[in-house]
Write a structure and sequence with these properties.
This protein has six helices and 19 strands. It is of the alpha+beta class and 441 residues long. The strands form four sheets. Strands 1, 14, 15, 17, 18 and 19 form a six-stranded antiparallel beta sheet that branches. A hairpin with a 5-residue loop joins strand 14 and strand 15. Helix 2 packs antiparallel against helix 3, helix 2 packs parallel to helix 5 and helix 3 packs antiparallel against helix 5. The longest helix is centred in the N-terminal third of the chain and has 28 residues. It starts with 24 loop residues before the first helix and ends in an 11-residue tail after the last helix.
């Protein structure tokens, strides 16, 4: 069975990037890269639509203070030119319409995708973050000890956590069935956990784990054919190990022997701890949750919380991504006003399942974990929906990109209008943005 080494989750993003991708240069410049990418897509598509055999001339240089001029691939008919023949018009008109539709779609998509800030996104954009503390389960053909598989036996596995902070533990389980779903007798013969060392790291002795089906410890039900074990690094010789811990479980199903691997990422360092009560404040048209933390090590912290409405519907992913100095500090998790106006949650709101870490660049693992808060952490007051702002998120960068993308739309409209001035309705249709869908729950 292949290792269950996870994708590294991180902060939410509009690529959100929630709590999924660790921020760094890429996260700080994500919007700029997005703008550059869509511009390149627009250029490539327009050049592709250029008539066969005709090279697209370079755009003329723009003089300072002059009105923007469309690149040559936006050009319609030159002023005063004779109307083209019907066949030429029939070929060229769809190309100009497609150009306009492309740049309009790019503008509309960017505007719609940046209505909310990166720190407050619809949780529907990050389905893997809705229930971060649910067990990771898999089912596949038996991996035989020594290589190969046995398709007649299916092994189902589960592990409660992938990332472990100091003092946390992970529960593992496995069971065997045939292809009809009937349980097969399984017996664990050996289970060992060891730290995966890289060049220069000190070797750590492996730790033996107990797997049983006796209904105690990590095992929920005695005699149900599910063998379970618990890894608590802080209580073993792995207490000081920092990195990936692999648990190798060897077992037998009748005369056949197999092996399963479980990976967790463990960080013994405690960079900060939660302290005090959570408080809320309605500020600048949004709802903010403030959490106190005792910071032991200064640096950039990523903290993520999930927000449900009174009916239990998850609708928002709130993320803090900023530097914290040593001492008592506040972490702010924001539910953006327009996100609430669009999603229409039923109050009061519940903040739950909060996880955080100190980002450590150029090292593995790339984080030092804070102890997670599992389940409900705070319930808000009730507010009228209209007390929150319906305005879209604004920033200098967003305004700049909307302006530049808007110029592309105007250039494409001018090209189509110059070529087919009678196509007023076509111009309006091709350049219109569809109604916003709001925040899906």
């Amino acid at each position: 069975m292949p290792s269950k080494r996870p994708k590294r989750p991180g902060a939410a993003a509009p690529s959100g990037t929630p709590s999924g991708t660790p921020p760094g240069w890429l996260r700080r410049h994500r919007a700029a890269l997005t703008g550059a990418l869509v511009a390149l897509v627009a250029l490539a598509a327009a050049l592709w639509w250029w008539p066969s055999g005709a090279a697209a001339p370079a755009a003329p240089a723009r003089q300072a203070g002059s009105a923007p001029r469309a690149p040559a691939w936006f050009d319609g008919l030159p002023a005063g030119a004779a109307q083209p023949a019907p066949a030429e018009r029939a070929n060229r008109l769809p190309e100009l319409v497609q150009q306009l539709e492309l740049v309009s779609h790019t503008l509309c998509s960017y505007r719609d995708g940046t209505r909310y800030p990166n720190s407050s996104r619809p949780i529907s954009e990050h389905p893997d973050q809705v229930r971060p503390n649910d067990p990771v389960t898999e089912s596949h053909a038996m991996r035989k000890d020594g290589g190969g598989t046995d398709a007649s036996v299916r092994i189902s596995t589960s592990q409660s956590r992938v990332f472990l902070a100091s003092g946390e533990a992970a529960a593992f389980s496995l069971t065997a069935t045939d292809n009809e779903g009937r349980k097969l007798p399984l017996f664990v013969t050996r289970a060992q956990a060891r730290g995966l060392n890289f060049q220069g790291q000190r070797e750590v002795a492996p730790v033996t784990l107990a797997f049983a089906d006796g209904g105690v410890g990590a095992d929920a039900v005695a005699g149900d054919g599910v063998f379970s074990g618990l890894l608590a690094p802080a209580q073993t010789g792995l207490a000081g190990f920092n990195g990936t811990i692999r648990t190798e479980v060897k077992y037998s199903v009748g005369e056949r022997t197999g092996v399963v691997l479980f990976d967790v990422i463990y960080t013994p360092e405690i960079p900060a701890t939660w302290s005090g009560q959570i408080r809320e404040a309605q500020e600048n048209g949004s709802l903010n949750f403030y959490m106190k933390a005792e910071v032991r090590r200064a640096g950039r912290y990523i903290v993520t919380g999930r927000v449900d409405d009174a009916k239990g519907h998850p609708f928002a992913l709130a993320t803090f991504n900023d530097t914290l100095a040593v001492g008592t500090r506040e972490v702010r998790l924001t539910v953006f006003g327009k996100l609430m106006r669009d999603a229409e949650p039923v109050f009061p709101l519940t903040l739950r399942d909060i996880d955080g870490y100190l980002l450590k660049e150029d090292t593995d693992p790339d984080r030092a974990l804070m102890a997670r808060i599992v389940g409900p952490a705070y319930v808000s007051k009730s507010y009228p929906a209209k007390s929150f702002s319906d305005g879209e998120w604004q920033s200098e960068e967003r305004t700049r990109y909307l302006t530049e993308l808007g110029k592309d739309v105007e250039l494409a409209k001018a090209a189509l209008s110059g070529y087919a001035p009678d196509q007023t309705k076509l111009l309006e249709t091709a350049s219109a943005c569809p109604p916003s869908k709001g925040a899906a729950q």
